[in-house]
Amino acid sequence: MTISVFDLFSIGIGPSSSHTVGPMRAARTFVAGLAEHGLLDRTATVKAELYGSLGATGHGHGSPKAVMLGLEGERPEDVDTDTIDDRVAVIRDRQRLKLLGEREMVFVEDTDLVMYRRKTLPAHPNGMKFAALDESGAEIAAHTYYSVGGGFVVDAETTGELKIVPDTTPVRYPFRTGAELLEHCATAGLPISQVMLANELAWRTEPEIRAGLLNIWNVMQECVRKGCTQEGALPGGLKVPRRAKALHDKLIHEDGAEDPLHAMDWISLYALAVNEENASGGRVVTAPTNGAAGIIPAVLHYYTRFVSSADEDGVVRFLLTAGAIGVILKETGSISGAEVGCQGEVGSACAMAAAALAEVLGGNPQQVENAAEIGLEHHLGLTCDPVGGLVQIPCIERNAVGSTKAVHAARIALRGDGSHIVPLDKAIKTMRETGADMSTKYKETARGGLALNVIEC
Ligand code: SF4
């Protein structure tokens, strides 16, 4: 499968790429299929069923809202985040929704959208089934999808096997592993970002790539700006207070000259701002997931604010390098908390950000790969145990800590010569195997760890 940087960084909504973005995409895909096959007018009811981690923590992750708006034809990249709650309230109140914005039908959430807390579909922890019924109650279409992390949705055959339609676009420097990537860098004499850029040219022109990446950067900045202005408690019942605005208002009045770790507070601020926006269902860039969406923007903000040589070219190179490491993680590891725990989300984002920072600070490919490896290695075994099934505790602070860890990893790598004992590929293999051994209760089910020990108020 060939993965583009634009697959890894997509503009979406919070709070979860797998539980919000994926279900919205799946629901829209299902109704678009009904329209394509001329079945929309015959559809009297749609039933949706969410399984596994989606069923267990979907309420806290906004999955039902995402499904309802997806059925109405909304897409995560352009749905108006300011109107989501009002629209869902209307659907719930009237018990009606408009399929693809056209076909109005009865939709009773309690019976038409079933969340199975303890049932799982065979191919992946995040399964969804959709069925369309006609006036007589006969099923006229049914489909199963899996939300496999990062907003990626795959189709399933009736056998339950995943039917991934791979993108087979030939790229200039194909790679799946860190070793293959480094080999290309060595033979072509290119840094990692330029290898990735050469591959991206298979889909888009260079000006399009640059404009697309700078647009992603703009959305990241807007997300931070918005997060720094919002006050009050986050939605969901835990009454978690937003902290970014208060921290921002303090930091802008400090010059930091006396504090050698002043920049660290700014890094934390950027991550808190993004993850608070994410937790409130705002517009975020999935990077590579929503739960871990604060780390790459926080480290990129650090670069643009605190590195004197920073410029737009550096921003583009940063995102390309992060994307290259994301390709390897997605191809040979996992970026799904439901599959391997938080090591796959915050660990992956930290590895991507560390590598990206190392490259724009002048690291050679070996140092960059080393930075990614350090970023991932020190998240190995990290479980996913969101309190109340909400992407708030531990997720928000974990992004702040993961961001400073990424800067730290880059600095350790840049102080070395690139040689290191544990290659990135081995760290990823370890993540995958550790995830396979990890109990299900630590994989985005909110049935273990902090989720069990912290009492919900
Ligand atoms: S604990 Fe980690 S993997 Fe789980 S929801 Fe939070 S950020 Fe995502």
UniProtKB/TrEMBL annotation:
It comes from the Bacteria. Residues 188-451 form the Serine dehydratase-like alpha subunit domain. Signal peptide: none annotated. It is an enzyme of class 4 (lyase). Its cofactor is [4Fe-4S] cluster. Pathway: Carbohydrate biosynthesis; gluconeogenesis. Residues 4-157 form the Serine dehydratase beta chain domain. Gene3D superfamilies: D-3-phosphoglycerate dehydrogenase, domain 3 (3.30.1330.90). Keywords: 4Fe-4S, Gluconeogenesis, Iron, Iron-sulfur, Lyase, Metal-binding. The keyword Membrane does not apply. Its EC number is 4.3.1.17. It holds the Pfam family SDH_beta. Belongs to the iron-sulfur dependent L-serine dehydratase family. This is L-serine dehydratase.
